[in-house]
């Protein structure tokens, strides 16, 4: 539930008798001006709006706004969904152009990143209760704020001049008694020196509890449903199935004596039950591990502590000194998946082989073991992020029409990631090879009693890149059955690693702004201007644990990522009010801005913007902007080391997927497979696990360039006081975009181009000949300046505040809507266009409506958040196979959330409030764990707020 308010407040103020035009700094410009004169569409969300939503997580709150729907929330960074080091992080994503293209500011100034290698700010570090308002400006703003503002700016404006004591407490929980949240905030402020100075100290603490997939019956056990290739001879190609299991792996072990990839026995020696075959890597029923067992955390545990200090002092009417300080200590914890192994070779004399299979093992000369190692513990992350930020500066006026500001910002984030539940590769493989020690007659690791021992594992993906122990220390490990290994064995193979990162930012800036009223004025008023310069230095240093750097553990082999850059910038902005308060021109103005930048990495760039606004009468205003934005590559994109990564790939050349892409796919697959010695007519994708690959940076990257235009109308009719309507069309086109595709996208793009002679095919490794020719066995990804993105659509904002003549209170109707006309991606120049509209988090239509009634201290709000259905299967996939899936499953159902909020003011100093979010208790769609609705379900919250006069 969100309660966005318009930036254009002038006419409403006038109807209340306030006709003054106080100038402020509006997000999107550095020129002081009346707020309602801003030509760029800005939506402001106030502190009361945040409280009314019931959200203490600002990212969850903002994701209810259409332009920020695709933001990266805690739910996106929990369990197995979280990338290494991202558990619990919260990042904003405007227009679905990526978190790296959304600039986050605090009081109009940059903030240090929370994500190593990037400029993305962790919103968990922003103090929720200290926020006065949040300004959301969509569209290019690089000319005003510099790089990263390609898709827009989110500016958190903090409270100032606080005098007294304010405290707020809130607690919430789902109707199922889980997913709890607790929040507390205390702010103390004091004016001093006859109100020439003010100092405020604010502290807040927040707690979010874990939510597990196993906490929901419909997501765990045999009840969990997913969409799979049909096991039946007739019907649709994709069908919803429950009780789906991996066809070749088990929690107790799957034993393959024929070396054909298919197990004959389970780990207890029982014949393998293949169930009903579900192509190509699953079975329904039988002996395999339930796919749902790999379900992990839906929400991470988060503990937030943020301390802020803000002060200013008016030395004179010409000089104000100001300072800010912040310390944020955030901890995130989440558990994901266990380790898993395929094609472990078991020696014929292994001491733990089930008795009934020992003879066959000896005759066979050994066998292969596949296993899902749940009994050895799940892997997870326990991350501590510490952020400090300081701002010092001076501002004032040279004359009534000339103002200045100088400031210095320093920020540092330290990330300590304890990766838990990992395993030593060499110890695991040595402990697996258990036999009877001829010297003692006891079961022992073969390495302990065999001089010159050599690992005999020709098929496993676990690499032995060195030794972490000496012979004699090894403890034998029993992998046959579940829970059979000793505590000593588990301790021997297990290890927690620690990755560390430090991110630093320094910004020195100075500006002069004002107008030329003392020299001349146009018919509409004096020309406003802003001139400034800025120096910024960014550093990021990511150092993985030495064990991870050497590839000695099960999880990814990681490399050091270290880099820095600086940028020198100069900018100018102009606003020319051509006409004002004349016939047929209530207001006519023109604006322009330009910024010159010199990066130590990519050299010089130029960004610019022009805008205009025309109001023939005070009721109607037409506005528009046109700009060029630039984004320089970040540190991770430039300097990222070659690290191991993994990806699940459904081979696009498999018979089940070959017709689900572009028209060129079948022919390209035929050429590709034939060149590798495979028969395209009989080729099958046999991968059932993720595939190892490498990911690295690219020092040859250049800047991205975007062109953005907006055109809108603002209606504030005098015949209906209190009504404000704005509609703005936006069009954003990004070229030379830096793109790192996923492993699946890489495989698809390889065969969906005009030919296979492209950069994507060069980055995919397939078997050339051998027993499984054509099989994908590896990939390599790195960022490239090869992509293009574009989006266009319509933003609609409505705000109607009215009070009937009878004393029945005040009513406020607010609505924010969006029509997404297009969201397109082109992987390489000349490649086919992929239209991502109607995909997850990119609906065609979206609306957020709130109706509020206030009466004598009592407030009641109903909120509705809705967005249109989105595709489960792409248009290309459905066109390629009209029998792909039952038509009712082509789309996910649309999103509906109904919220209710109430508050009561007990006098002027105390307020109680509470509400229910998603009171209809809608959950995820069939086959999903958190889309389009969260599995949290109905959520209830209560809170209280108290304000006291100063006690000093």
The first-to-last residue Cα distance is: 38 Å
| Basic shape | globular
Beta-strand level of the residues, as a percent range? over 45%
Helix content: under 10%
| Biggest β-sheet strands, sense, barrel | 22 strands, antiparallel, barrel
Q: Strand tally, please?
A: 50
Oligomer state of the chains in this structure: single chain
Count of DSSP-assigned helices: 14
Structural class given helices, strands, pairing? mainly beta
Query: Which blocks of ≥5 consecutive residues have pLDDT under 50?
Result: 1-24
* Average pLDDT level: 92
What is the alpha-carbon Rg in Å? Answer: 31 Å
Comma- or semicolon-separated keywords:
952 residues, 50 strands, mainly beta, disordered N terminus, 22-stranded antiparallel barrel, 46% strand, globular, single chain, six-stranded mixed beta sheet
Description:
The protein is mainly beta. The protein contains 14 helices and 50 strands. It is globular. The two termini are 38 Å apart.
